[in-house]
Design brief:
14-stranded parallel beta sheet, 799 residues, Pectate Lyase C-like, 4 helices, 5% helix, mainly beta, 37% strand, 3 domains, single chain, 19-stranded parallel beta sheet
């Protein structure tokens, strides 16, 4: 009898497994039909090709032993473009190897773990898939690359990058779903440019509305690189989540415990490489644990500190700041960072200091003298014990010992040396920290995230993150290969202003002839080209409807490349003139930018309170500033790149190239390009001025037409410096890489040379201008065909 029963079971199993099929599909219709008919164990295979504007609704029911799989024929060879989206709804479904690229899904999410409002996904998985450069028309449209609904779902070994608009890359949604137990692991999150306003998180778990609910999502073994959309890289807005063993590199923000209680942040490695705005971990709310994290080279202060413990707001609303209660900060290592910040509030009403919170067995090292810990308010509710700092740091708190421990290199980071073991004896904690950041058991109590002398790599440094079909080095390049949008802009009030505000990704704005009026200063956060109809036909002006005069016309606020061509820009306003035509970012930035001006006229930037047609702020740097065929006229200053004053050898641009351009009636300098101090590891700056005219520039006794203090390479050639008659020294050149060649100086002061600077064929004669509008020369002028290139000295093609 037993034999017969076994035979029956064997036949039933064979019949069941025999029904599993591999189903190739070639178009959207076949795909939809295959999904409708799919049975547990089936695999639907999308053939290798571009699938454009496909809305995949993967709604089916598999089982734990026999999931239903949707996959590409070859991982990475199914490209989903245009408006293509994927919705997953049902049970035990898996999606493998798809690649969404350069699409535009509007307000939709690219991938949604919900087939419809009644069918969330459970026990389902998205693996080895890429979403790259999928963006709507405007940055202000909110959507997600991946929206996680339902329960027990997993997103792993995926690559996500190039998101430019509002909304996190991955959002865990808690509406109708608590204790959802999702897992987000082994993914690569590539560069996300600063959004410029709230909503640029890379991962958000919950929202303030559901922040008192449990999510129990685990975020582990991921790699976040240059995820700088906003201050919150990972935003926790729910309870009982775990963020562990992730690597975060050069990202302008923090892991933020924004709302929700009893979360654990452990084993993460955060490396800022001393870039501006890089931060660590920010603690708010109740019962959260921050332990075994390694934070290196972050420079952010206050809310972006390596560890920030915040004050709370009395009777706070769900979207405000609950006080820190029962917080635990243990065994973290902080190396060459700004100070840890305790009891700091972001609002004036944040008056409740942390309560019953422990700061224990943390290790802080800095090679530069400075504060280890900054207390912004009352810290009596924070118990400090067993913490160690090195002797370079200033520390006066009880529970923080200054000891002379040593670090040594290991696996690309630094760990305490074995010789320092006895110096780092720590205190007993509750709860116990049983392992270090490498996973090694702690046999003794020691401060810091890694046991002294343990050369095993931290777990966060060993994860294989991202898709199998494209390497991270190649992904970095893809993030820059974003499709360029071309937009025609008509003249009128605020038309240009609105077009720039609505940009999503690199954009070319084509302007017809006419007048364009702006009411506000314009921040440019994405790569932009503005192409006018010529500087005598296309005019940009300040509107009479402006509430107040803008401080500047354009600010490069995150854009890496801005090009302006064929436009006339006027700084005149009825109340006062605009202070700056174009500026760099007004705060330090990590990325180099490029500015290209061609056939552009700037006039009436006459603000004498430090104004300039172009200003570079301290801490910013251009790779190239290129100016061609342009005019700077009737203004206070020309280009001002003189704000690096800390004697470390910094300077604001690698290359400045000014060709066939005119500076006329400039009150002070045409160019001020300064480097303070010397830094041997840089080129020291490069200035080329060729075929230019400087007329009535800085016409005062102590004036200087061109200032190049400390710049390594300067070459001024084929140019005319005229009618600055009161100026004693129009240019001072110093060093054997400074050359003035084949130029004419007339009615102006002297060129002063020192330290082997060179003067080659410098002449003094009347240029014989036909007029001083376009600086065309009369017949018989010595400028004609006298350039080193056999073209006119001064402007060329100025008919």
């Amino acid at each position: 009898m037993k034999i017969k029963v076994n035979i029956v079971i064997w036949f039933v199993l064979c019949f069941a497994f025999a029904k599993a099929q591999t189903i190739p599909v070639n178009d959207a219709s076949q795909l939809s039909e295959a999904i409708k008919k799919a049975q547990p164990g089936d695999t639907i295979v999308m053939v290798n090709k571009e699938w454009k504007d496909v809305d995949i609704k993967f709604k089916a029911i598999g089982t734990s032993e026999r999931p239903i799989v949707l996959k590409s024929q070859t991982a990475g060879s199914v490209k989903l473009t245009g408006t293509s989206t994927l919705r997953i709804g049902g049970d035990y479904l898996e999606v493998h190897g798809l690649w969404f690229e350069n699409g535009n899904v509007g307000k939709n999410n690219v991938v949604r773990f919900e087939a419809d409002s009644d069918t969330p996904a459970t026990n389902s998985r998205l693996t080895n898939c890429a979403i790259i450069n999928v963006n709507p028309d405007s940055r202000e449209i909110t959507n997600y690359y991946i929206a996680l609904h339902g329960k027990n779902n997993r997103v792993d070994h995926c690559s996500l990058l190039g998101k430019l608009n509002k909304g996190p890359a991955i959002a865990v949604r808690l509406k109708n779903s608590i204790d959802n137990n999702h897992r987000i692991d082994h993914n690569y999150f590539g560069e996300r440019l600063p959004l410029g306003f709230n909503g640029g998180e890379t991962i958000r778990i919950g929202t303030s509305t559901y922040s008192k609910q449990s999510s129990r999502t685990v975020v582990e073994n991921n790699f976040f690189e240059r995820c700088s959309g906003e201050m919150e890289i990972i935003s926790i807005k729910s309870a009982h989540n775990v963020v562990r063993n992730n690597l975060i590199l050069e990202s302008e923000g923090t892991i933020t415990l924004r709302h929700g209680d009893y979360n654990i942040i452990e084993g993460n490695v955060i490396i800022g490489n001393n870039l501006p705005k890089t931060g660590g971990i920010r603690m708010i709310n109740k019962g959260n644990i921050v332990r075994n994290n390694i934070i290196i080279g972050t420079t952010g202060k206050d809310l972006r500190a390596p560890i920030c413990v915040m004050n709370g707001i009395p009777n706070s609303k769900l979207n405000e700041y609950d006080p820190v209660v029962d917080g635990i900060i243990q065994n973290n290592t902080i190396i060459n960072c700004s100070p840890v910040t305790l009891s700091i509030g972001s609002r004036s009403n944040a008056t409740i200091a942390p309560v019953n919170t422990k700061f224990e067995n943390n290790l802080i090292y800095n090679s530069n003298r400075g504060l280890a810990i900054f207390a912004g308010d009352d810290i009596s509710g924070i118990s400090l014990a067993g913490n160690k700092v090195n002797s370079s740091l200033i520390e006066d708190f009880d529970g923080v010992d200054v000891v002379d421990f040593k670090l040594e290199a290991a696996n690309g980071i630094y760990i305490p040396s074995a010789d320092s073991d006895a110096l780092l004896t720590a205190v007993k904690t509750n709860p116990k920290v049983r392992v270090d950041a490498t996973g090694a058991l702690r046999s003794q109590l020691r401060a810091g995230a890694i046991v002294p002398g343990n050369f095993k790599p931290a777990i966060a440094l060993t994860s294989q993150a991202g898709v199998s079909f494209i390497k991270i080095d190649e992904l970095r390049n893809l993030s820059k290969d974003i499709a360029v949008t071309v937009v025609d802009v008509a003249p009128g009030e605020k038309t240009l202003e609105k077009a720039i505000k609505n940009m999503s990704g690199p954009t070319i704005l084509k302007l017809t002839a006419g007048d364009y009026f702006i009411t506000k200063a314009i921040k440019v956060s994405q790569d932009l080209s503005i192409v006018g109809h010529g500087n005598d036909k296309t005019f940009l002006k300040i509107s009479k409807e402006a509430d107040k005069t803008p401080q500047y016309i354009f600010r490069l606020n995150g854009a890496k490349e801005v090009k302006i061509k064929g436009i006339h820009i006027d700084g005149y306003a009825s109340s006062e003139t605009v202070k700056y035509g174009i500026t760099s970012s007004n705060s330090p930035t990590s990325d180099l930018y490029n500015l290209y001006l061609d056939d552009v006229t700037f006039v009436n930037f006459k603000n004498f309170a430090g104004g300039a047609i172009f200003k570079a702020y301290a801490g910013t740097k251009a790779d190239t500033i290129s100016i061609k065929n342009s005019t700077f006229k009737d203004s206070y200053r020309g280009l001002n790149l003189s704000y690096e004053k800390d004697e470390t050898g910094k300077y604001n641009a690698e290359h400045i190239i000014i060709q066939n351009s005119l500076f006329v009636d400039i009150e002070q300098f045409a160019v001020n390009y300064t480097r303070s101090g010397i830094e041997a590891r840089t080129s020291g700056g490069n200035l080329l001025i060729d075929h230019c005219v400087f007329y009535r520039v800085d016409d005062s006794e102590k004036g200087r037409i061109i200032k190049v203090n400390g710049i390594k390479n300067v070459h001024i050639k084929n140019s005319v410096l005229d009618n600055s008659r009161e100026t004693n020294s129009i240019v001072q050149l110093k060093g054997n890489h400074h050359i003035i060649e084949n130029c004419v100086v007339y009615n102006s002061g002297k060129v002063k040379l020192s330290d082997s600077a060179q003067e080659i064929n410098l002449e003094r004669f009347n240029p014989k201008w036909e007029n001083t509008e376009n600086f065309k020369v009369r017949d018989g002028s010595g400028l004609i065909n006298a350039g080193t290139d056999q073209k006119n000295i001064g402007l060329i093609n100025n008919d």
